[in-house]
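hi! just following up on the protien thing from before. the input was this:
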Amino acid sequence: MLGRIPLEAFRVFDAACRFMNFSRAGRELNITQAAVSRRIQTLEDHLGAQLFHRRGRNLTLTSQGERLFRRVRATLDYLEESLEPFSTRSREIVSISASGSVSHLWLGKRLKNFDNESPFVAVRLLTTDSPSELASEANDLVILYSTGEHPRWNLTLLMKEILIPVASPDYLARRALEAASLSVEEIAALNLIDYERFNAHWISFRQWFTSIRHPPNARPEPRLSFSTYSMAVDAAVLGKGITLGSIGLISEQLASGALVEVGTERLETGYGYYLGTPRHRSLSPAAERLHQHLLASP
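and the predicted 3d structure came back as:
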């Protein structure tokens, strides 16, 4: 039976399923709405099964149609991947590694912008908090939490680490608090949100309070603690309390007003986030484009 069905019919069926509209499917395939309808009808006749429920202009898939769509979509995806090596415009692959917090808070948006500018470069992102995996030379680029020196990577500073307490305006408003006027003692008494330290050099609230110029009299205890830094930031945005913000990483939240600085104490740790290129091999043109894009990103 399959040999009697034109393969083009499956491509038309796939487009009709994705758009749930024969006219839009026809525009994508550069054929008329009537041609789409005829090909779908031919496919249904060959299979002996109704694939769509038609109610005026509204389409929905039947159970047989849903089952066929999953199989056709999987087959087309596989075929497209299999043909990539034969394409004269196949995408160059660049690999980059970064921690979970950098990937979630800073890198993701910039990689999306890069994809829009360089559609023929595919970026493979390794997100890990393991120092050995981050610094693996299997990657083309890396973003490291560092003081600026590494035996295997040439590092360029992306942003210094400057830590400040931050909270959402909603959290502060519910407590009638003025962000800029809060003392360290007052901050220590609020709902502190902390995170696990996967690196001995990371600083959480306990270390921050002991490192600033005027630490509180009593040792504060966090009310909430998360396994990742990005989860702590997300909780602060949702108004759950106050967390430490690394200014460079949360620049978007600060600019949008989702988070505001609390108090006036800032701690510059001497560390920062650095973009690394391999010391012992050259970058490909695609990797060099991504390197320059990230360095130029605000």
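The two ends are 58 Å apart (CA to CA).
The chain has a mean pLDDT of 89.
cheers
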